[in-house]
From TrEMBL:
This is DUF1611 domain-containing protein. PANTHER family: DUF1611 DOMAIN-CONTAINING PROTEIN, GLL3100 PROTEIN. Coiled coil: none annotated. InterPro entries: DgcN-like (IPR011669), DgcN-like_C (IPR035086), DgcN-like_N (IPR035402), P-loop_NTPase (IPR027417). Residues 54-137 form the D-glutamate N-acetyltransferase-like N-terminal domain. It comes from Sphingobium limneticum. It comes from the Bacteria.
Length: 347
């Protein structure tokens, strides 16, 4: 990601592929969202998954050792965990070193940089392997201008983190394109960047420059073009609200979709914080978003109903839509409800 001729070029990632997805010792699906996202949206790039003893999460791929995955053609071990703080714990180190020695490059979207670990750096140098850190913003990001840009923008926001903002943005962008609409998915997190091949790792940008980074992520575009921007965190998350607000102000969305997971009642990763209601999220997003786009509006709700069967999901979608007065849909299940949500986005 570089700055060229006075404008930023987010660049295109060229990563060694295909991948073996490393799940570490994860026991919470919400913290394995990188592996799950790659398995769901880039399955042709994923050979299998590799978990340590105690790992109870699966991305639904064959469980392989690094040696087995290497025999099947895998070239990179991708850290598929996005834990609190983006740390690489000591208990992973032997497995990461083994992967380097087996001939893998390492790819990470964690806050902790692979290159900062002397043992990994030494083994990588000895074996001629690469340590690739995705979560590295470009140099020289300016502060935001607040200038209204051409084109149209949709942002996914959430009642919490890790509940479907990326999936929703990917699904909406794909559906827009299927309707013949000029649209781009704009990635703002490590997994989305790996899927899209470019983007802005918003949660690594210094706070003064967050809104400026979001402006770079979604530049001026033709009047009928849609940028569908992957949201981050939640305005109600005590740790991540700053990133969410900077992304909201800088992306200047014309439309937003609220993402929520059936059954979740507590903010993920912190104790003692209850999930906000969907109306609270709509009200707060409009109130704060009006700073840079006075015409901001909510189009509807994206419901993560993965814990329900089809019949129960349909009942819940219809109930919530009647209660809130907005279109509600699960973008993974698609169907008529999703078509109604798309119509509301475009109306």
């Amino acid at each position: 990601m570089t700055m060229q001729s006075g404008r930023f070029d987010l660049g295109t990632l060229i990563l060694p592929r295909p991948y073996l997805l490393f799940l570490g010792d994860a026991t919470e699906r919400g913290f394995a969202k990188t592996a799950l996202g790659l398995a769901d949206w880039a399955p042709d790039l994923c050979i299998g998954e590799y978990g340590l003893p105690g790992c109870t999460v699966t991305a639904g791929l064959p469980r392989l050792t690094p040696a087995e995955a290497r025999e099947k053609g895998a070239r990179a071990l991708v850290i598929g965990v996005a834990n609190v703080g983006g740390v690489i714990p000591d208990q992973w180190m032997d497995a990461l070193v083994d992967a380097l020695e087996q001939g893998f490059d390492l790819v990470s979207g964690m806050h902790a940089k692979l290159v900062s670990f002397p043992r990994l750096a030494q083994v990588a140098a000895q074996t001629g392997r690469q340590l690739i850190d995705i979560r590295t913003p470009p140099q020289g990001i300016p502060i935001a201008t607040g200038r209204k840009r051409s084109g149209k923008r949709l942002l996914t926001v959430g009642t919490d983190c890790a509940l479907g903002k990326k999936y929703t943005a990917l699904a909406i962008a794909d559906a827009f394109k299927a309707r013949g609409i000029d649209a781009d998915f704009r990635a703002s997190g490590q997994t989305g960047i790996m899927i899209a091949g470019s983007g802005m790792p918003m949660d690594c940008v210094i706070s003064d420059f967050l809104a400026g980074a979001a402006e770079i992520l979604s530049p001026d575009a033709p009047p009928e073009h849609w940028d569908v921007i992957e949201g981050q965190g939640s305005l109600f998350h005590p740790a991540y609200a700053t990133v969410s607000l900077g992304l909201l102000h800088g992306s200047q969305p014309d439309v937003f979709v609220v993402c929520h997971e059936v059954g979740r009642t507590q903010i993920l990763g912190v104790n003692g914080y209850t999930l906000p209601s969907i109306p609270q999220v709509i009200e707060q997003t409009i109130a704060m978003g009006r700073l840079t786009n006075s015409a901001i509006r909510c189009a509807g709700i994206s419901l993560n109903s993965s814990s329900l069967d089809d019949a129960a999901a349909t009942v819940e979608i219809e109930r919530l839509s009647a209660e809130l007065g907005y279109p509600v849909a699960d973008p993974i299940r698609r169907g008529p409800a999703f078509d109604r949500l798309l119509d509301a986005c475009l109306s």
